[in-house]
Design brief:
Layout (H helix, E strand, L loop, with lengths): L1 H7 L2 E3 L5 H5 L4 H6 L6 H7 L2 E6 L5 E8 L12 H8 L10 E9 L1 H6 L2 H18 L5 E6 L7 H4 L3 E3 L14 E6 L8 E4 L5 H11 L2 H6 L3 H7 L5 E7 L5 E8 L4 H7 L9 E3 L11 H5 L14 H5 L13 H19 L3 E3 L1 E9 L2 H4 L3 H10 L5 E7 L12 E2 L10 E7 L9 E5 L4 H9 L5 H12 L5 E8 L2 E10 L3 H7 L4 H9 L4 E9 L7 H12 L3 E7 L23 E2 L32 E6 L9 E3 L3 E4 L3 H12 L1 H6 E3 L2 E5 L11 H4 L9 H6 L7 E4 L2 E4 L5 E3 L1
Parallel strand pairs: 4-5, 13-14, 20-21, 24-26, 25-27, 27-28
Antiparallel strand pairs: 1-2, 2-3, 3-4, 5-7, 6-7, 8-9, 9-10, 10-13, 11-12, 14-16, 15-16, 17-18, 18-19, 19-20, 21-23, 22-23, 29-30
Helix pairs in contact: 18-19
């Protein structure tokens, strides 16, 4: 096991500085297999995942680029699932679990130094690292052009799939698929319930994390738990084919939801409750459909009932035609019905993780099957909860969960994470597709109870019209809509380049053409699916055939700085996007709106008419890994030094790509400086500072920390901070 870990650690992500070294590996064989390899920089920018492998001396020996669609000129990026199914009949290849090899090179000198088997093992480790990095991917496909023979070291690793009308012997002259299946590179885990004989292995695994359990409960606490089982608890273990235990997971269906509701915002998840099964359907089969409620046996449980818990309303299209007396009677009947529905008993819809441990950190990347098996232990519950103490390092297992926001002003020693069985592929594939006219009804149900839902629906209606400049897409899981998005072509790239630091993105946009950039207009997504947001935004790029996706977030200075204009739910996308720095010199007076004329007369919106923060999503952001910093950070005072520290900590180019801070607080006696609009007299005086009202509207840093108005009196580092 140590050997495997040592080999895997030689694989790392490709940096832009590595492209020059990789270009020296490109030869005629590479160009024949990958015609796009003539420009490795463009390939790197369009890839979802780019890995390389180094030898013991730190020298690059191989590299692999993966994308979410194949490079076949005759096949549109949005149509590859139909192409693979009809031409090759590959079962199980879906958008959610398939990536395509867009670039693969290895050092021939390295291949000559070792034997052929060892050269194949070197590439095997590279594919293995790719499966670990893209843990939702179970299949990687290389499209081999016709008339080419695959190198021997690759032929030993990949399975050849010819077209349906071709035999394997005659496939040399045909375009074939070379498939890398996950089970051939990563040993599958077998999940089962724990038995008494597993005690020593499980206790040893948990001792690697913390020996407190052994100290309190002795050396045989697992054996005693299995010997005297409780109906509310299950202990699962995962083992390899050689019967070696690699992970343990203990779950319990007894959850104090009232305690969690006092400290966390659970309204987006219906309080992790659902109606009783016998009450989920009424006698009138069409009543729930008229109310827009999901049935009790929906694969999403009661996640959608969050809108109904707050607004139980009936909609009758013929109500306006009734008499005034009938309308009053109907209103009285609705009030009675609403009271009855609010009194309907609910039952818990979640179970909790009690214990989790892995023997090797690499095995933690493939514990998704262990989590999926825990849902089978409680088939009547849809959510899995996990509490992590504050200050603990982020672990890959949490990538399957969504962090639940803490209530304003509440302090709790742990962070709450939630996962849904639908996010793990247990109810069908998660995919994106273009919206259709009939999706409007389901979209209205999805947005019921959401602020400015009519604005979002109106944008969807406009996008569905013929010759519309906008395009609407929906996100579906098991054919049920769980989110929607509206895009349009970004026509102001030149202005954005003048106003923000696009860097290499500007040259990339100009090289790819006018249609290469899109703008995210609307986005609504069920909160539980935020853990798959990178994949969904990557699907939007593929379906719309864009290279870049921009999002403008306007902030109204008269409102709370953390609230977006109009109350739109769009800031959900910020967790997967990268913020872009504004060009300060283009705002000589940051305290007022300064209009500047440009050569682009066809642009309607000048960047300075309405200030906004700019964010971008690239294909590489789809599989970008961000560690959550689960530490409480308190900054005292709102001086320029403190605000600059927060700016670089939260939205700095290096931190924003790899880290996400979840608990940052600014304590200031007067709140943020320059929060109100300045009078005209003050705008006549040059402003020498930086963090003024206008600058905060050009960045999104205020979205990532809380502002507490008070004066710090003392700090008790062992407990809490005190302020008045």
């Amino acid at each position: 096991m140590a050997n495997t870990a040592e080999r895997i650690t030689k694989c790392r992500y490709v940096q832009r500085s590595d492209l020059k070294a990789l270009a020296s590996f490109i030869d005629c064989r590479t160009i024949d297999l990958f015609p796009e390899a003539v420009d490795p920089t463009a390939l790197y920018e369009e890839s979802c995942l780019a890995l390389l492998r180094e030898n013991s001396s730190g020298r690059i020996v191989s590299a692999l680029f993966l994308g979410n669609h194949p490079h076949v000129p005759a096949v549109a990026a949005s149509a590859w699932p139909i192409w693979i199914d009809r031409l090759y009949g590959v079962d199980g290849s879906k958008e959610e679990n398939t990536l395509f090899v867009r670039f693969l090179v290895w050092d021939d000198e390295h291949e000559e130094e070792e034997e052929e088997e060892e050269a194949a093992d070197s590439l095997r480790e590279l594919f293995k690292a790719a499966f670990y990095a893209a843990f939702h991917c179970s299949r990687m496909i290389l499209v081999k052009p016709p008339g080419l023979s695959l190198p021997e070291c690759l032929a030993k690793l990949l399975l050849t799939v010819p077209p349906k009308n071709e035999s394997l012997e005659s496939s040399e002259s045909a375009q074939v698929l070379c498939v890398a299946d996950q089970n051939r590179f990563v040993a599958p885990m077998r999940v089962r319930l724990a038995i008494e004989e597993d005690n020593d292995d499980v206790v040893g695994i948990l001792d690697n994390e913390n020996a407190t359990l052994r100290r309190f409960y002795g050396d045989y606490y697992l054996s005693e738990e299995v010997r005297h089982p409780e109906a509310c608890r299950r202990v699962l273990v995962a083992e390899r084919s050689n019967n070696v235990l690699v992970a343990v997971l203990a779950v319990n269906c007894r959850v104090d939801l009232d305690l969690l509701a006092r400290h966390f915002e659970l309204s987006a998840f219906a309080g992790f409750r659902k109606f009783r099964e016998q009450d989920s359907r009424s006698d009138d089969g069409g009543e729930e459909e008229a109310k827009g409620e999901w049935p009790g046996d929906s694969p999403f449980g009661s996640a959608e009932n969050k809108w109904r818990d707050e607004n139980f309303t009936d909609r009758d299209e013929n109500e306006s035609e009734r008499s005034e007396h009938d309308a009053r009677s109907n209103s009285f009947g609705q009030q009675q019905q609403q009271q009855q529905q609010q009194q309907r008993p609910t039952v818990p819809n979640a179970f909790a993780v009690e214990l989790f441990g892995v023997a090797d950190k690499l095995d933690e990347l493939k514990c998704q099957g262990l989590l999926a098996a825990s849902f089978e232990c409680f088939p009547e519950r849809d959510y899995c909860l996990l509490l992590q103490p504050n200050g603990r390092a982020h672990c890959p297992f949490l990538d399957n969960f969504v962090r639940v926001a803490r209530r304003q002003g509440r302090d709790f020693p742990m962070s709450l994470y939630a996962s849904h069985r639908a996010c793990l592929g247990q109810q069908g594939s998660l995919r994106a597709r273009e919206a259709r006219e009939r999706d409007l009804t389901y979209a209205a149900d999805l947005l019921e109870g959401v602020d400015s839902a009519e604005v979002v629906l109106e944008d969807v209606r406009v996008a569905l019209e013929e010759d519309s400049a906008q395009r609407a897409f929906v996100f579906a899981c098991d054919e049920q809509i769980v989110g929607l998005a509206v895009l349009r072509r970004e026509e102001q790239v030149n202005r954005l380049e003048r106003a923000y630091r696009l860097g290499h993105l500007a040259a990339r946009a100009k090289r790819a053409g006018e249609d290469s950039c899109g703008r995210l207009v609307q986005l609504a997504l069920m909160p539980i699916f935020v853990s798959r947001l990178g994949f969904l935004l990557g699907e939007l790029l593929r379906l719309a055939e864009h290279r870049l996706l921009f999002y403008r977030l306007p902030l109204d200075s008269d409102q709370d700085p953390r609230a977006s204009a109009g109350g739109r739910p769009i800031p959900t996308c910020l967790s997967a996007m990268q913020p872009l720095e504004p060009r300060i010199r283009n705002w000589p007076q940051l305290q007022r709106l300064y209009r500047q004329s440009y050569d682009d007369d066809d642009d309607d919106e000048a960047p300075f008419d309405r200030l906004f923060s700019l964010h971008v999503f690239t294909p590489r952001s789809a599989l970008a890994h961000k560690d959550i910093v689960n530490v409480k950070i308190v900054v005292v005072g709102a001086s320029d030094c403190a605000l600059t520290f927060l700016h670089h900590l939260l939205t700095g180019p290096k931190n924003a790509e790899r880290l996400r801070f979840c608990d940052v607080t600014l304590v200031s006696s007067n709140g943020l400086p320059y929060e109100q609009r300045d009078h005209r007299v003050r705008t006549m005086i040059p402003f020498a500072g930086l963090h003024c009202n206008a600058y905060r509207r050009l960045t999104s840093e205020t979205l990532h920390y809380n502002v507490v108005k008070g004066t710090m009196t003392r700090i008790d580092r062992s407990r809490y901070m005190h302020y008045r």
